[in-house]
Amino acid sequence: MREDVRVALDRVILFRLATSSRFERAVRIAPGGERAAWRGASRYVAGTSDADAFRVAQRLAADGVAASVDQFGEHVGDRNTADAVAASYVRLAEDLAEHPPSVWLAVDLSHLGLDVDAERCADHLAAAAAALPPGRRIQVGAEDHTRTDAVLGCVLDVAGRGLADRLGATMQANLHRSPDDADRLVAAGVQVRLCKGAYVEPTGAHPYGEPTDVAYVRLAHRLAAAGADFSLATHDGVLREALLAALGPRPVEQLLGVRPDVLGELVARGVSARVYVPFGADWFRYWMRRVAESRGA
Q1: Model confidence over 28-77: pLDDT tens digits?
Q2: What is the 3-class SS of 178-239, one letter each residue?
Q3: What is the pLDDT of residue 75?
Q4: Which tens digits make up the pLDDT trace of 39-52?
Q5: Most-buried pick from 20, 30, 67, 245 (CB within 10 A)?
């Protein structure tokens, strides 16, 4: 079997495991399973509490690196849970006043009840954005293609309420629709976090590898030509350095625990660096996604 085909199959299998409740339960109930899994996951996860996340953010700030703190959770299926999560994000937003100005928030909208009530989800996002200290943002994460329309609509709704300068949106370069979506976000004044794409999509997406890399380069140039406020969220050093050379200094974003050695070098060069810092009890699937994404990296 060709190496590229084997890697693609491995990624598909690992992503399926990352979304499998049955697999997660099996690992966690196995003798020593949860402890062993946590040993692997702990490099990517700040801990189980917001205090853990803010400690990591403070440490990063001391090294000149910004942070975006996120509370694990997605695919909430009932209004009461979504309301409780939204209230916790408002508290997190208010708590940012006690931390360095470089510390932001991040959120997946399905954690705020996007699948339950999109309009109420927009209200939740607006409440969290409004509670932020001046100069901070809440970065909205990318989710699978079935939610892309709803996520975009929610972000644009909240931006239209006068909160665009407090929002960031994650753009997946692998999706065919992303150039048009990027234009809409830029026109609305929303900051863009450009990534390759974290999901194995069955349709509407470029294949993993060179086609996605090319789409990423083209989209970065499109954003730059539009004068957009955007960051390069990638661990691909070749791609990052080529774009920094072509476009000039741009903020770079990474995930906690992935190639941390790069951060100091970027800061020393005067390149703004930001790290995604997640916390919470639901760390298992996030860890599996990091393992899946590492295939072929």
Answers
A1: 565 665 676 767 778 899 999 999 999 999 999 999 999 999 999 878 99
A2: HHHHHHHHHHHCCEEEEECCCCCCCCCECCCCHHHHHHHHHHHHHHHHCCCCEEEECCCHHH
A3: 86
A4: 777 889 999 999 99
A5: 67
d(CA 85, CA 91): 10
Contact 181, 190 (CB under 8 A): no
Q: Are 104 and 137 in contact (CB under 8 A)?
A: yes
Q: What is the rounded distance in angstroms from the CA atom of residue 29 to the CA atom of residue 56? A: 29
What pLDDT was estimated at residue 124?
98
Cα dist from 25 to 22, 37, 132, whole Å:
5, 12, 36
Residues 239, 216: contact at Cβ < 8 Å?
A: yes
Residue 135, C-beta contacts closer than 8 angstroms, at least 6 positions apart: 101
Mean pLDDT of 144-169: 97
**250-262 mean pLDDT:** 95
Q: Give the pLDDT score at 11.
A: 53
Instruction: Name, in order, each residue with C-beta under 8 angstroms of 235's C-beta and a sequence gap of 6 or more.
Output: 254, 255, 258, 259, 262, 297
3-class secondary-structure state, position 297: coil
Provide the 8-state DSSP code for 175.
B
Q: Judge contact between 182 and 156, C-beta under 8 A.
A: no
Contact 228, 193 (CB under 8 A): no
The structure tokens listed for 78 are 């009932």
* 273 phi, psi to nearest 5 deg: -125, 140
